[in-house]
Amino acid sequence: MSGLPRDRRFLALTLYYGTEGNLQHEVSEMHDMTISRAAREAGVGVETIRFYERWGLIAQPCKPAGGGAREYDEETVARVRFVRQAQDIGFSLREIAELLSLRADLGADCSAVRARAMEKRDAVQAKLEQLARVRDALDTLIAFCPGSGAVRACTILEAIEKGAAADQSEAPSRSSNTASGKIAMKTTLLAIDGMHCDGCARTVEALLSRLPGVRKAEASFDERQARVLHDQESVSEVDLAEAIAKGGFTAKVESQ
To answer: What is the pTM of this model?
Structure first.
């Protein structure tokens, strides 16, 4: 190999059988694959390859004895693509390292890979449910916000502050109430006047949901009603009506 030109080009000789069964050969010109070219082939940046090397996900080639750039092969490029694809579907680098180990283990069973995929899917589902709760909370805050006015009177900021205070103060009282059996849930039906659209119904729900003892609040513009599941010890029917009145509506408890 000492006779190679300085641009480090070489000829790859591929042997194969022709149509008549005779051993023939195909000569193709190849180039050394530097880290820059390997990154392009894998569709990543150079720093990504170096990062994977530091994590031990791919092996760093040795430097040539005669000097020059490190040379990467197609197997490394394929491994980089695998790592990147696994990242794209949610696997962490630690989990990817486990997958690579399983892939290299000839005695490993596909069920082990499936189990890890199922674990990841469950984690993704839990995250989606958490995000859905966040979305619903934001919808509630947005529905209650008038959309204008001084920031010191911002209902969204106020709700966040009150929610933080409630989380700190209510946790002990809830656990003590549960232990003593004092929690008594009740469903209250209220007739609402002053609603003009479905948006008003969402605002009523937001007003009610802000109360610490309310577990569920549903309002209907068509029926001009609100149905509230609440803890009687924490919030009374009067509290519900007063909360609705803050939005410019009037509420009256209906008999059930």
So the answer is: 0.47
